[in-house]
Design goal:
It is built from two helices and no strands. The protein is mainly alpha-helical. α1 (6-38) runs antiparallel to α2.
Length: 65
């Protein structure tokens, strides 16, 4: 593999960070949904998982808030 410019490395890092954040958000959503289905909470799990995954994503994006 050849040398990578600083800007190419920056773009790759941004892309990988977005992929990692989306993957972690999806994992949180799926785990919370599965747990609420296991506990018999019904559709509440869908909304709880979406809300907590979104809250987590926002806290990770804006860490100083």
């Amino acid at each position: 593999m050849g040398k990578q410019s600083f800007f190419d490395a920056m773009e790759a890092n941004k892309r990988n960070s977005v992929i990692l954040a989306l993957g972690l958000t999806a994992l949180i959503f799926v785990v919370l949904f599965a747990l609420t289905q296991l506990w018999g909470m019904g559709e509440t799990g869908l909304f709880l998982g979406a809300f907590l995954a979104l809250a987590y994503e926002l806290l990770m994006y804006y860490p100083g808030v």
